[in-house]
Each structure stands twice: as C-alpha cells, then as structure tokens.
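[09:14] KT: can someone run the structure on this one? pasting the chain below
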Amino acid sequence: MNEVLEQLYARKSVRAFEDREISKEDKRTILEAAIMAPSAGNQQLYTILDITDPDKRVRLSQTCDNQPFIAKARMVLIFCADCQKWRDAFEAADCEPRRPGAGDLLLAIEDAVIAAQNAVTAAWSLGIGSCYIGDIMENCEIHRKLLGLPEYVFPAAMLVFGYPTKQQAERKKPERAELGYIVHENTYRHMEPEELQRMFDKQTGEKEYRDWMQAFCRRKYNSDFSREMTRSARAYLKEFEEHPAGAGDCSQPPLLSR
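[09:31] RB: done, structure tokens below
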C-alpha cells in the first residue's frame, strides 16, 4: 500500500488537540491543497472562511451543539457553497444572469465539500488532525449574521484542525462497513432487514441490533439537533426555491466536468 493510501486508511476524526499552534506555512499549505481540488468547470463555487477571531470560535462552539473543542482548535475553516460571487461577476459584466436555483446550490456544495476533503487529507499528511462539524448547517439566522453570509451562500461544512493528543492519536479508528454493503453494481438495490443487520454488526458490538438501532435513531436521526438542521437547511434553500430558474443566462451551458 502506498503512502497516500495508507494515510487515507489511517485518517480519523480528532476532537482533542495539543496546546500547539499550526505554523503559517502549514496553514497555507493546507489552504492551497484545498483550492487544488476538482471543481465544476473550474468555477471554484466556494468561499473558505478562516475563523481567526477567538470570540467567534467560542460562539461557534455554542451554536454548533455546544462542542467546546471547536473553540480550542488551532484552525477553524468554514467551506461555503458560494453562488453569490459568480452572480455578482455576471451582473458586473452586464450578463443579465438568472437567479441561482437548487441545482446551482447542489453543484456548489459538491465543490465546497471536495475542497474541504483536500484540506483534511493535506492536514493529515502533515500530522495535523481534523474533524468535520456538520452542525454549521444549523441555526441559519444566527450563522448568517455571525459570518455575514449573503443570500446565495450556504455554509456546507466546517472543519476544525489541530495536533491530536496522545489519546486521540492512539484511539482506534471506527470500523467501516464492508464494501459489498456500500457498492451496488449498475442500479440501486434495497437491502433486506437481515442484510442491513449484518452491515451494522461492527458497530452494534455486544448490544442487540434492535436496541442499538432504536437508540441511535433517537440520538441522531430523531434528535432535536437533527430536526433543527433540517429546519435551517430549508431556510437556506428558500432563497434558491422561491425564484424559478428562467431565461437570462449569459453564456454557453456550464462545463460541469471536474
């Protein structure tokens, strides 16, 4: 197994960090690796917010489900799906662009998250751990004001970075489901209950499958934070749904290849 594959297999989320700064050089390397990511038509439909203000980090640790380790991280980046800057550029060039729609948003989210994963991989290669914070999608109204987000910008992912503590470095990475459960050939297939149970065997441990699944559903899927995430995402989507995409596109169909 080559070095790149070894790092992809070894990388795990880190939520406790050493009291050690990330150098300016390493930070720049991580950011430059992020923007080297594949992008639809080389549009780079994202903006990265580098949160250096300690007060904002503390506030984000509160608004993102009260997770203190966010404030203690040595670097905090928010990858925003950005449909605003291209719209602004089109208008500045007298293109008469249509309003961004749901498809534009989803494409920008893809770009943003691909860039984020490049940052994760680059950081790990430098010995720097990271953790995705999906909770940045919650509390739309608060985060829009805190981060100055315009109407066509969506915070797709937040990442916190730092050097892992000894305990975090030695912690076993959670096992993933076997390939056969994840990869379907040519078409999607519904798995039977027995197969689904086998898929989760590595996670349930000594617990009964039904008890484990019910507890997980309560803790994650039916939780208050999950419901708030859905409400907040709907609030962001409203900007992209209220105005149907129409005429006025300024140029040829976009190049979607990365």
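[09:33] KT: thanks! The domain at 3-174+206-241 is CATH 3.40.109.10 (NADH Oxidase).
[09:34] RB: yep, looked fine to me
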